[in-house]
Each structure stands twice: as C-alpha cells, then as structure tokens.
Amino acid sequence: MQQRRPSYALWIFLGVIVLIVLWVFGTYNSLVSLDQGVQAQWGQVQTAYQRRADLIPNLVATVKGAANFEKSTYIAVAQARAQVGQISPQVVQNALRNPQAFAQYQRAQDTLGSALTHLLAVTENYPQLQANEDFLTLQAQLEGTENRIAVERRRYNELAQAFNTRRSTAPTVFIAGLFGSQFADKPYFQASQAAQNVPQVNFTP
Q1: Which of 43-47, 85-89, 94-98 holds the top average pLDDT?
Q2: Which of 148, 145, 191 lies closest to 53 in space, CA to CA?
Q3: How far is CA 38 from CA 9, 35, 44, 185, 202, in A?
Q4: Where are the domains of the chain?
Q5: Measured between alpha carbons, how far is residue 91 from residues 104, 141, 149, 169, 188 in Å?
C-alpha cells in the first residue's frame, strides 16, 4: 500500500494564514497602545485646564476688592469660565473621536485664556493689587499652570502625531479601517487666531 505524501502546499498555506493572523493582532495591539497613550495625555491636558479653572474664582474675588477695578474685565473671565463649564462631559469624552467637539473644547479654553490674560494685564494699573500677597501668590500659581498647559498640549500633539502616523501608514491603515471610529485620526491643538501662542502672563510688579 502506497504511503500518502504530506501536502507541503497545505502546510505553507496554513503557515501564511498564521502569520497574517499574528500580524493583524500585532497591528491591532500597537494601535491600542498608541491610542491609550493619547487618551492618557488627553487626561493630563484636562487636569491642567481644570487647575486653571479652580484658581479663577479666588483671582476674581481678589481683584473685585480693588477700588474702581474694571467690572467688565472680571465679568468676562467669569463668563468665559462658565462657558467652559457648560461643555458636557460627553463632549469632552468624545472629543478625540470628534474633531468638532475637540474644536469646541479648544475654543472655549482659548477664550478663557484670552480673558484671563486681559484681566491680569489690567491689574498692572492697580498698585494695591501688585502689593497684595494673596494676589501675587495667585499670579505665580497661574503662571505655573499656563506653562503646564503649554507642556501638556505639546505632549498631546506629539502622541497624537505618533498615532496618526502609525494609523495612516500602509498596510496598517487597512486594519484600522476595519474598526471604524475606534482608531479615527486624533485632532491636534492649534494656535487660535486671536493668539498664535498659548496665553502668556506678565507677572512683573
């Protein structure tokens, strides 16, 4: 009885299938890892912005105590902060998959930053504020917070770029396309038209 020869073609075919499956899993896992990095950094950006928002009520209360201080200036800050607070958690959570939501979040934060910068510039005309220790402490804290916001935004953009580059590179782009919006391109922070840089604050008395 003649022995049946093994089918090498079948084994080669199965080996190719295994390699393809392993490559798909590896590509998926790398996209997940990059996506999680962007998500984590997005949380850091929100934390920095929240720190700024938390400082504002004390700042507004301090400048309101200055004689003849321009009421419209601190009202603008309070209104801008309220506008940021009106953005729903769902919008913030989905911002990385929704460029319109991301832009809405950035516009609100940029508006608050501009109003805050204007308020602090106006305070230079009030010597009693420049001599107020509580106010000077708030200034220093805000300066550190603005710097932190700039750093976190830059880190976010770097991670988003790494993800987008990987996601858009062939043949990874075909794998990413199979999962719909799960691996959508990440939006970037852009300089606002009102200010080409993140708001800078001058704290010189």
Answers
A1: 43-47
A2: 145
A3: 44, 5, 10, 11, 31
A4: 29-183
A5: 9, 28, 20, 29, 16
Residue 189, Cβ neighbours under 10 Å: how many? Answer: 20
pLDDT reported for residue 196: 43
In this predicted structure, what is the pLDDT of residue 183? 92
Q: Residue 82, class by beta-carbon neighbours within 10 Å (0-12 exposed, 13-18 middle, 19+ buried)?
A: exposed
Express each pLDDT in 143-186 by its tens digit: 999 999 999 999 999 999 999 999 999 889 988 988 888 899 99
Place domain 29-183 in its CATH homologous superfamily: LemA-like domain (1.20.1440.20)
